[in-house]
Amino acid sequence: MHKPTRRQFVQGVLAGAAAVPLIPGLGVRDAYAAWPDKPMKIIVGFPAGGLTDAWARAYGEYIQQKSGQTVVVENKAGAGSAIAAEQVAKSAPDGTTFLFTISTAWNQNTILYKKLPYDPKDFVYISGFGAGQLPMGVHKDVKATNLKEFIELGKKGQKLTMGNYAPGSYPQMVAQQLNKLYGLNIESIAYRGEAPMWQDVASGTITAAIGSVQAMLPHVQAGNVRAIGQPTSSRSPKLADVPTFGEQGFKEPIFVLEGWLGMFAPAGTPAPIVKQLSDWIQEGYKTEKIQKIHENFGIPQRPWTNVEFEELQKKVGPQWVGLAKELGVTLD
Questions:
Q1: Stated pTM of the model
Q2: If we measure between CA atoms, which residue out of 130, 155, 131 comes closest to residue 143?
Q3: Which residues of the chain have pLDDT under 50?
Q4: Domains in the chain, please, with CATH?
């Protein structure tokens, strides 16, 4: 007889468990008393120190408290989080291995790479998080206080470089949109995460960058970087004096589309486990510690449930992919 692999065995056991209705009066944790029966792992597709990493660690710590199992966060940067995604996609769907990534990597990877080692269908949604504003900052010596003045520098022939934290990410798309609209030649410079990117803006190695408020703010406060604009429909409370791109007169979709951060599990993870994880994240958001972290990053809104998150991605995902195709986003 054919002996099933461990993965096949786990899948069979969990599939059978998922088919058993919950006993009236008992919660998900009671019905799945054996879960989790080993340490859990969150694979982050970006280096430590950025927004994605901070969210994974904050909520991972809360899941650890509620589950009674250790939750380890591993940073597997590279290939726009495709390395991390592949690892999670190939993991057993037993509710112990998760992916944390961002919307541009999730959507743009489908067109950046001719052959991805995974498919978005290899995952189930657990929870989504607003990415907040991703402000644009320039080195202190750049003679621009807003996006229009930055564009004028390019029109006058000044060499402009834009740092980006992942292939196909938002800053690369903004650079290409500006090049297309105004005949500029902004060069996109790729980094493995935000920290080294902002360090290079602060030192003047590159002209500008776009990234999270929290990662940029120390350089603004030190006087080495100047924020000149931020996307979405509202200003970050951390940069209340910096107008949005829309307020500056830029109405193209790239300047108003909102991104997300998301937590996923391998496809086949039982629905009750997904629901419990989603519920824990909603609970975690209400704690004083995580509220403070949201405040520090200037992102006050609560996370989305697994259902809300999936519905949101179905709506905005095609918009991001369509825009990336229109702008000709590549790995260069």
A1: 0.78
A2: 155
A3: 1-26, 28-29
A4: 6-131+258-327 (3.40.190.150), 136-255 (3.40.190.10)
